[in-house]
Design goal:
With 414 residues, the protein is an alpha/beta fold. It has eleven helices and eight strands.
Length: 414
Amino acid sequence: MMVRVRWRGGPLLPRLEWRTGVLALLAGLAAVSSAIVLAVDVSTDGMLAISRAIVVVVCLGATASTVHLLARRRVAESEAGLLLHLAALATAVCGVVQPDLGWQWVSASVLSAIPVVGVMHLRRWGLVSLTAVAVLGAPVVFAAWEPLSLLTLIASVAMATVPAVVVGVVWALAQQLDSARRAAARAAGVDELTGLLNRHGLAARVGPLVRSASRAGEHVSVVVADVDHFKQVNDTHGHLVGDQVLVAVTNALRGVVRADDLLVRWGGEEIALVARGEAGRVARTAERLRAAVEDVDVPGLPRVTVSLGTASALAPSRATDDTASELAAKLIDRADIALYEAKRAGRNRVCHSGAIAPPRAPAERDDVLGHAVELPVEAATDRHGDAARDGADVVVLPADPVVALPSPGAGATS
């Protein structure tokens, strides 16, 4: 997450990553605190009994770190780990060489807090090493100046234990939060019943697929499948059986598609496949999908069939996320038309829509596009290589003309 700090309407710190901002804030506090300590010691003529040279070094180091973090705006894990380790080592050294009891306690307390900040940036061994520096550093600070006593021993053990316990708790909470976020992300993109992508998941993954097809000069194709008479299944056997039928259909479809194809539960009993490949290939794939569902025979479940519609288009030359989503939506709409043609023709069959022109990026759009060119479609074949069986006809629907939006800056036309 990026934050912006504004001053008088303008961005003072644009695009500052929040974890980097926390590091910068802590470094800034260290610089200001050191400057205040130095000013008090100077104004009281050395009442604090501190080494001013050490305080000056700490103040300059913290100031330099603050400026560096604000300039970088976002630091990588390795860079944050280096800064935190240097800060821990510097704090321990200052606590050892500074002849002041108050400074000693402050150093030990800061050492306990540094690994907690490290939880936001470091993972596993980086966090372990930072915690080890804090756990070992605090007793060393106390042993340097305090005489050996029960109080010193208790304080040393406490200062060594607190960082490990706090970091362990915070790390466990952070892991649970990360797991919850990943689960929420999966839930947002995956259908709970079938495990297929849902519409959000398709929107997130269709861009890379279309760009891959664009680089290879390939078509993007869509198959939309709808379970025949699914309402009757629900009315006769109940919705629980209907859900089980959908899961069985999904498993059958999964056995046909390729690993890089996108299988989506588009809504209700409608499942869409988005894949790379020209019209002839997608027609053959659709027939294999139809035959796979027709062959499903699960004890206790009614046997069902699916009607399918397909559509394809050449991937756009400049495939952005927006044009990829636009292309997928347009292809699914066209495949839906072919699907309902298959329903009207008797169900349990494949119909193919005519090819459509791919959407163009804004920089490529002209004022007017010509009619889409219809591609020839090969006859659908089943898994054994024979011609389409059981009346699984392939119907080619005429392509609609595609009209582009006016290019930016073009005048309105009547």
